[in-house]
Amino acid sequence: MFKCIVALFVVQMVTCYVMRELVTEHKDHPDQCYDSVNQLYYDLQTSWERPGLCEQLRCTPYTEPGQLTITHHGCGVVIVEPPCELRPGNLSLSYPDCCFSVYCPPEAPTPSRY
């Protein structure tokens, strides 16, 4: 997923990662994913965030009975070379608004992305 927004002298690149975590459905909590970090159960198709991380998680079904998936969406990786700079994100905001940003002066090349 890649989006590039160009405004007055600012190039902002947004990249992300997606990870899937397989979890076993608990017999007392059918159709719910257990987040071991928050120590809470979440209903299918529910999204949530973890404190201190710029990441969104979502409980989704899996193809095998008794298994569910927690899908993680988070900020990606960007290689920044001078004169561009990586600006820190704001963890008080929700994902993806909490992600870092890249600022490049108008004469700078666009940064590489991985």
Descriptive overview:
The protein is elongated. 0% of the residues lie in helices and 49% in strands. β4 (32-35) and β5 (40-43) form a beta hairpin. It is mainly beta. It has strands spanning 3-7, 10-14, 16-24, 32-35, 40-43, 47-49, 55-61, 67-75, 78-79, 85-87, 101-103, 112-113. The protein has one domain (3-113). The chain contains no helices and twelve strands. The strands form five sheets. A four-stranded antiparallel sheet has the order 3-8-7-6, with no helix packed on it. A two-stranded antiparallel ribbon has the order 1-2.
Q: Would you tell me the structural class of the helices and strands?
A: mainly beta
Order of helical and strand elements: EEEEEEEEEEEE
Shape: elongated
Largest sheet: 4 strands, antiparallel
Integer count of domains? 1
**Helix amount:** under 10%
Oligomer: single chain
User: Ranges with pLDDT <50 over ≥5 residues?
Assistant: 1-14
Q: How big a fraction of the residues is strand?
A: over 45%
List the strand order in the largest sheet. Answer: 3-8-7-6
Strand runs, count:
12
Main location: secreted
Protein name: Single domain-containing protein
Subcellular location: Secreted
InterPro entries: SVWC_dom (IPR029277), Vago-like (IPR053308)
Keywords, please?
signal, mainly beta, four-stranded antiparallel β-sheet, Single domain-containing protein, secreted, 114 residues, 12 strands, disordered N terminus
